[in-house]
Design goal:
Shape of chain A: elongated
Largest sheet of chain A: 5 strands, mixed
CATH superfamily of the largest domain in chain B: Aldehyde oxidase/xanthine dehydrogenase, molybdopterin binding domain
Helix content of chain B: 25-40%
Number of domains of chain B: 3
Oligomer: heterodimer
CATH superfamily of the largest domain in chain A: Beta-grasp domain
Structural class of chain A: alpha+beta
CATH class of the largest domain in chain B: Alpha Beta
CATH architecture of the largest domain in chain B: 2-Layer Sandwich
Mean pLDDT of chain B: 96
Strand content of chain A: 5-15%
Low-confidence stretches of chain B: 780-793
Number of strands of chain B: 28
Number of domains of chain A: 2
CATH architecture of the largest domain in chain A: Roll
Distance between the termini of chain A: 54 Å
Bound molecules: FE2/S2 (inorganic) cluster
Structural class of chain B: alpha+beta
Number of helices of chain A: 7
Helix content of chain A: 25-40%
Chain lengths: ~180, ~800
């Protein structure tokens, strides 16, 4: 197997973009409460629609293969990896991205908790981490450590070692953790 | 001086709100009209002669706007190191032969990525396969395939092949030292290939506008990128602008000039359109620069009380197919050897060896973890053989404050003994150590504890050798800081704002920052020699102080009070003799404009380490001073090993470090936690598995990086040895990379403490631990354990 072949197979984001065949489909997505009517190739991934077609670049792509969680968004309230989710699968559904967390320019309690705990360093994992944490907190208002780990297990963070991220979730869920930054 | 309001406090990140809302722009988020997609053709072979490259079919493909090979470049070489001894050695695209899998041969720009990919496949390259060499010791064999000629200065004296460079130094007389020692032992340690694991992939967007090349690229130092791009493109610096973007992690892997950066630029110049190249994760794993696996052979002689008498090291770096930072690592490995402990007789040799692997880059710690793993493991073995505990032997040898180092540097107030004492006390190490091996244990989990010590330099002289900062006062009394510093996650922008707020006595919200843009901000060392807080921070302190002096000068004229009586607080200048007499900054600013012929108020500051010492150390001989900022640390690891499965994990880490003082303690803690986690990956999980130069696990499913399930408790404690006084220079020290080292060694020592298994190769995988346990078994029944011939596991 040549090196080039492996690239073209693995690099799913690009494979999706280049799909020349397959008839385009007309889909409707609700992204952060706004309705988008879009024509897409069947192979197009959700992350491309969000970032390139709609232009919301808060959602990050890192591995394009479902292994890092950076591209996590909420689809009908559940966290999904937008780099391996076909856009056509989301037809008629509601999608939430990191841009939806602050309301009228005011950070949500979860976003504040991330900053209070130093849970953000380079920030590249942050949008996906925040979306996974949002879904977790919607399921469990006071998640246990085991539930936090389960809820965030698909999100890689290379910078923080995860300690501050766990503390942020504990803080926002009122479990006795106070801000370390002012 | 009055109490500090900003420095030493854990302020939230300046860039935080942008990062949690998705507003922060990273390189791939920058969009320009008419953008073209670039892709790079890479070698499928580890070593081959290029017979011909035919791009005609690719050029003819509709939608392809440009195709380049080395023939379309100026042929100007670049290198991580560019010195008279080690001149630039790498072309931006391969010429004549390829020397590693994934080496860049050609690049295309097309209307979309499908067309770009198709174009790559239409490029016809004819190769003549050459034999490859992958093991550094085999590569040194005079008969080995030659990747590049050995360095001429070494080829004259030594028969080895493929030597990219060598560092050699020493003092005293090691042979005599060993003869005088009561106990001598010799061991060999090896480390694996690891990737940096930055979440943001390499991305470059280039846009040529008539006479200016605009670049957005994921980097650790925009001024270095500008210098290397301008050089290889043969453009003046003023024609290249690297714009600020947020950066999604670097850890050493984004400082070199990468071929794709050049290609995006060149393709934009040729097409007149913006060109973006994004590296896929698989490309990063297979073709980009990783760490530098070292073989460390160390022989140490000690007195019965544990005092080190002599040490001899031979380090071999599997440095990949070009020089990269390989020659720097073998230089640094000496520094990481000599800094923590006194050693009256030392002989050091480090070889940087070419192999047919991808080029190597710095990686957090730049060799330090591998060196400390070796020395600290061996020190524990020595201690055990002599019946000394791990704390006593370290205190016996640790450098004291104010000691001179062999290279003429001084550790100043650096206090390693205090770090060791605090670590021992806080972790209760001496009580816990040896417990698991003493009494018969039940169950299959063994717990162990271990310590490791490390020292790290900061802010050494390296291009551009200086940081400048400008502080521009606004008419309303707030300030804008212009700095070339780049925030790669460590918190550079926040720390600089804290210092400016402190010096000007204004609020954090009154300081806005413009950073890392090569056209609008002064030169800066960048985020890669562990000196930002010291160097750029002192420049910021000076710049703010300069603005403050101007404010005071104008106020003194207006208030009719001597300058000496005036000082600043709450955005105002006041008279210390008569605190009622004061002028707010906006009033002073207006007065300056009115009475000083329109002068506004701008402060400037510059800094570098060793301001009065013009020399750089020699990479070959280590002669010449290096820095005045040595950070010390002692780290303790507690691990659990499952003796049935061989799985080991870090349970608890304690990091006691002397970084001078923390400007922002919570940001320091963030660095500590991240390093502990990364070192845990090094110890137990991570390895880029290769065969004949091919990466076999080019993704995060098969390359296991710590997830939240691997999180370990991490505690830190500062040993404060320096202080901050408004208006005076200060000394902070490294805290962002060296702390991957002591803790790695501590984990190795803790695994031994838990199980009796001594490991000489990272990672400490279940296979290695089980095989070590197996080797211990017969000794249990016969009661004989051969301490002197450790198996290399
Ligand atoms: S980018 Fe989607 S999981 Fe990594
Ligand atoms: S903050 Fe950098 S990867 Fe998580």
């Amino acid at each position: 197997m040549s090196y080039l072949e492996t690239i073209s197979i693995e690099d799913t984001a690009n494979v999706a973009k280049i799909e020349p065949k397959g008839r385009s489909r007309f889909i409707t997505l609700s992204i952060n409460g706004e309705r988008h009517e879009i024509t897409v190739k069947p192979r197009k991934m959700l992350i491309e629609v969000i970032r390139d077609t709609v232009g919301l670049t808060g959602t990050k792509g890192s591995c394009s293969s479902g292994t890092c969680g950076a591209c996590t968004v909420l689809l009908s309230g559940r966290p999904v990896l937008s780099c391996i989710t076909l856009a056509v699968e989301c037809d008629g559904k509601e999608i939430r991205t990191v841009e939806d967390l602050a309301e009228n320019g005011k950070l949500s309690a979860l976003q504040e908790a991330f900053l209070d705990q130093g849970a953000v360093q380079c920030g590249f994992c942050t949008p996906g981490m925040l979306m996974s944490a949002t879904a977790l907190l919607e399921r469990h208002s006071k998640p246990s450590l085991a539930q936090i780990k389960k809820g965030l297990e698909g999100n890689l963070c290379r910078c923080t070692g995860y300690n501050a991220i766990v503390d942020a979730v504990l803080q926002v869920s009122g479990q006795g953790v106070t801000p370390v930054m002012k | 001086m009055s109490e500090l309001k900003f420095v030493g406090k854990s302020f939230k990140r300046k860039d935080g709100p942008d990062k949690v809302t998705g507003r922060a722009l990273y390189s791939e988020d920058v969009k320009l009209p008419g953008i073209l997609i670039g892709r790079v053709l890479r070698s499928p072979h580890p070593h081959a002669r290029i017979v011909s490259i035919d791009t005609s079919r690719a050029k003819a493909l509709p939608g392809v706007k440009a195709v380049i090979t080395v023939e379309d470049t100026k042929g100007i070489k670049h290198g991580f190191v560019e010195t008279p001894r080690y001149p630039a050695d790498q072309e931006v695209l391969a010429r004549g032969k390829v020397v590693h899998v994934g080496e860049e041969l050609a690049a295309v720009a097309a209307v979309d990525s499908f067309t770009a990919q198709q174009a790559l496949e239409l490029i016809n390259v004819e190769y003549e396969i050459l034999p490859g060499v992958f093991d550094p010791e085999k590569a040194m064999d005079p008969e080995a395939p030659k990747i590049h000629p050995s360095h001429p200065k070494i080829a004259d004296k030594e028969p080895f092949s493929n030597i990219g460079g060598k560092t050699e130094c020493g003092w005293g007389d090691v042979e005599k030292g060993f003869a005088e020692s009561d106990y001598v032992r010799e061991d060999r340690y090896e480390s694996q290939l690891r990737t940096h694991g930055y979440l943001e992939p390499h991305v470059t967007l280039a846009h040529w506008e008539s006479d200016k090349l605009n670049i957005w690229t994921s980097s650790m130092g925009t001024f270095v990128k500008r210098a290397k791009l301008a050089k290889t493109l043969d453009l003046p610096y003023s024609s290249v602008r690297i714009h600020k973007t947020y950066v999604g992690g670097t850890f050493g892997g984004k400082i070199d000039l990468y071929s794709h950066e050049y290609c995006a630029a060149r393709l934009s110049i040729l097409t007149g359109r913006p060109v973006r190249i994004v590296a896929s994760r698989e490309e990063i794993f297979s073709a980009y620069r990783h760490s530098q696996p070292l073989i460390v052979e160390v022989k140490t002689g000690v007195k019965n009380d544990g005092t080190i008498v002599a040490q001899q090291l031979r380090v071999i770096n599997n440095a990949g197919a070009y020089r990269g930072s390989g020659v720097v690592v073998v230089f640094l490995a000496w520094g990481f050897t000599m800094a923590p402990y006194r050693c009256p007789n030392l002989k050091y040799e480090g070889y940087s060896v070419y192999t047919n692997y991808t080029v190597r880059a710095p990686q957090r710690g730049h060799g330090c973890p591998k060196v400390r793993f070796a020395i600290e493991s061996q020190l524990d073995m020595i201690a055990e053989a002599l019946g000394i505990d791990p704390i006593t032997i370290r205190l016996r040898n640790a450098r004291q404050p104010s000691e001179d180092l062999p290279n003429g540097d001084n550790v100043h107030n650096g206090n390693l003994p205090e770090c060791i004492r605090v670590a021992a006390e806080k972790s209760d190490l001496l009580k816990k150590y040896g417990e698991a091996r003493k009494s018969p244990q039940t169950g299959h989990i063994r717990r162990g504890i271990g310590i490791g010590v490390s020292a790290y330099f900061g802010g050494s002289l390296i291009y551009p050798n200086s940081s400048g900062v400008m502080v521009k006062m606004n008419d309303d009394g707030s300030a804008i800081v212009l700095t070339g510093a780049i925030d790669v996650g460590q918190g550079a922008e926040t720390v600089i704002c804290q210092i400016v707020a402190e010096e000007l006595a204004i609020g954090m919200e009154d300081v806005k920052i413009i950073s890392s843009d090569t056209d609008t901000t002064p030169q800066d060392i960048g985020a890669w020699v562990s000196g930002m807080t010291y160097i750029t921070g002192n420049a910021a302190r000076q710049a703010a102080g300069n603005a403050r002096a101007k404010l005071i000068q104008v106020a003194s004229e207006q208030m009719n009070a001597p300058v000496e009586d005036l000082w600043v607080e709450d955005k105002a200048v006041f008279n210390r003799q008569n605190p009622q007499q004061r002028m707010t900054y906006d009033q002073v600013f207006a007065a300056s404009v009115a009475t000083h012929r329109g002068d506004t108020i701008i402060g400037e500051g510059f800094w570098r380490t060793m301001r009065d010492v013009p020399t750089h150390p020699s990479l070959a001989t280590t002669k010449g001073r290096w820095t005045e900022n040595y950070a010390f640390s002692a780290q303790v690891a507690e691990v659990e090993v499952d003796i049935e499965t061989g799985e080991a994990k870090l349970v608890k880490a304690l990091t006691v470090h002397d970084c001078g003082f923390p400007v922002n303690p919570a940001l320091v803690k963030g660095q500590v936690d991240g390093q502990v986690s990364m070192a845990m990956g090094h110890a137990f999980m991570e390895e880029v598995i290769t065969r004949n130069g091919y990466t076999l696990n080019p993704n995060w499913l098969d390359y296991r990086m710590p997830t939240i399930h691997n999180m370990a408790a991490s505690e830190d404690a500062d040993v404060i040895t320096e202080e901050y006084r408004v208006g005076e220079p200060y000394r902070t020290k490294e805290v962002g990379e060296g702390l991957v080292s002591g803790i790695l060694a501590a984990m190795a020592n803790a695994v031994y403490d838990a199980t009796g298994v001594r490991l000489y190769t990272t990672p400490f995988s279940p296979e290695r631990i089980l095989s070590g346990l197996k080797k211990l078994e017969p000794s249990k029944t016969t009661g004989v354990r051969d301490q002197q011939s450790p198996e290399v596991l």
